[in-house]
């Protein structure tokens, strides 16, 4: 999850034309397919290299370019069916069809319960609907599956802030910034910003 959400621009470039593009559209029960989702692609080495690159970036523009590459790996779903559900969910969210987006992400999570991005994307919809508690629960699950998911960490900070838990929010944001110091949410730590907590000792 992230407020800038570069995944919206990726949605149109993904596979959405598969004949059996999702468990709901194919008429199958979601539960019956839960065991058929393959493992998500292992991009750990590529992600670590990009995180090192973004920490060494010389400009915000360079960091944004690297950030977009991170999203390409996070949004690489386990198979075409999962990819189609992810893409449809993002497309519906970008059209403000939040209930439709939740249906797609619910189906994706039921089909691929070990795929972190399903939880991260559903969390973003919850956040946009101001259901910060639901967003936080999904982000915690995404981070269990992908502990160095920078966008989930920053989304967790925003959700905690929405729940009026600023000390925890600042801690989560600092974890995210240790991985990518160029995140737009870094400004929340500026003097006078919501997560500038003065002399609070974390």
Overview of the molecule:
With 202 residues, the protein is an all-alpha fold. Helices cover 58% and strands 0% of the residues. The protein contains 10 helices and no strands. Helix 5 runs antiparallel to helix 6, helix 7 (116-128) runs antiparallel to helix 8 (132-145) and helix 8 packs antiparallel against helix 9.
Secondary structure tally: strands: 0
Number of helices: 10
> Which overall shape is indicated by the principal axes computed on the Cα atoms?
globular
Low-confidence stretches: 6-34
- β content, as a range? under 5%
The helix/strand order is HHHHHHHHHH
Q: In this structure, how is the largest beta sheet organized? A: none
Name its key features:
202 residues; mainly alpha; 0% strand; globular
Topology:
Blueprint: H1 7-10, H2 30-33, H3 44-55, H4 60-74, H5 80-94, H6 98-111, H7 116-128, H8 132-145, H9 150-162, H10 166-179
Concise summary:
With 202 residues, the chain is mainly alpha-helical. It is built from ten helices and no strands.
């Amino acid at each position: 999850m992230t407020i800038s959400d570069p995944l919206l621009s990726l949605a149109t470039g993904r596979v959405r034309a598969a004949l059996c593009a999702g468990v709901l559209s194919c008429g199958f029960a979601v539960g019956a397919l839960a065991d058929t989702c393959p493992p998500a692609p292992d991009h750990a080495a590529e992600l670590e290299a990009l995180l090192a690159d973004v920490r060494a970036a010389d400009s915000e523009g360079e960091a944004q370019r690297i950030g977009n590459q991170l999203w390409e790996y996070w949004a690489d779903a386990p198979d075409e069916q999962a990819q189609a559900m992810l893409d449809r969910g993002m497309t519906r969210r970008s059209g403000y069809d939040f209930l439709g987006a939740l249906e797609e992400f619910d189906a994706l999570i039921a089909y691929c319960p070990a795929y972190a991005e399903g939880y991260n994307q559903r969390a973003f919809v919850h956040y946009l609907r101001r259901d910060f508690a639901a967003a936080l629960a999904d982000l915690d699950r995404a981070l269990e599956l992908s502990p160095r998911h920078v966008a989930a960490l920053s989304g967790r900070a925003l959700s905690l802030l929405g729940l009026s838990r600023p000390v925890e929010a600042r801690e989560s944001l600092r974890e995210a910034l240790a991985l990518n110091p160029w995140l737009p949410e870094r400004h929340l730590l500026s003097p006078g910003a919501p997560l500038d907590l003065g002399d609070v000792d974390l």
